[in-house]
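User: Can you help me understand a structure? I only have the sequence.
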Amino acid sequence: MAHLFRRAAPFVLLAASFLLLYGGVVRHLVHDWIRDENYSHGFLIIPLALYFAWERRTRLAALSLAPSNIGLIIVFGSLGVLLAGVLGAELFLTRVSLIGLTAGSIVFLLGWQALRVLAFPVALLLLMIPIPALIFNQIAFPLQLLASQVGETTLRTLGVPVLREGNVIVLANTSLEVAEACSGIRSLISLLTLGIVYGYFSDPRGGVRTTIALSTIPIAIASNGVRVAGTGIAAHFIGPEAAEGFFHTFSGWLMFIVAFLMLFAVVRLIIRFSPRRAPHPALSGAAVA
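Assistant: Let's start by predicting it. Here is the structure, written out as tokens:
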């Protein structure tokens, strides 16, 4: 019993320290997931990371544990980042320090080999952290202009008279502003997360998984451009009310479904045309034996 207590004591102490230091950070993070639709997928990240960690339980059990005191350096460095974030009122730093604390704790308690095994689920946690506003705006505004350009080009191709001024599309009977919410960054972030998870389950090759994740970027941009064009067409033929309310919300959900179907088709093509490495003869013979 005493031996069991000694083994469990570090984990209990770690959990208590975590609640004391990061309770407020986690609470504000969950609040952002609820309030900001761009990051509502954050609720799915932790269960997925836990699943991927549990999936690796056999590999972890096969390791000879070699706890490293370097993990303490990583932990204290992460706590320093937490302190800097608190003093500077920078939420992003406090949240990133949480990932560093997780990695450092694994190294300290289990060793570097365990961190290598758990690298993917730990890295996946980064997707639950909202991007800093400065970087977010640097991404969102170009996406607004790109969506406006795609919408304008599509409308002209279909014979709809249109004039674009920046991110404002001027039609004969109304004007459409491609606002930040319509920039497509929301679907881009969600689709990127989906692409990473989908790629993980679709193929074991790292290169293929990376290609699948990167393919979500043009898919999200194209689907959002189609949405803007569709809104313009509806506003031109039906009236300005077609660009507001239910139709606007419904078109967003519809385009995300279309984007997912496009991703599904692209994944099939990537896997089909990605060359597979032939097994090494010696390994192949060993496998047969």
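Now, to help you interpret it: Residues 279-289 have pLDDT under 50 and may be disordered. The chain has two domains: 2-128, 134-273. Let me know which part you'd like to focus on.
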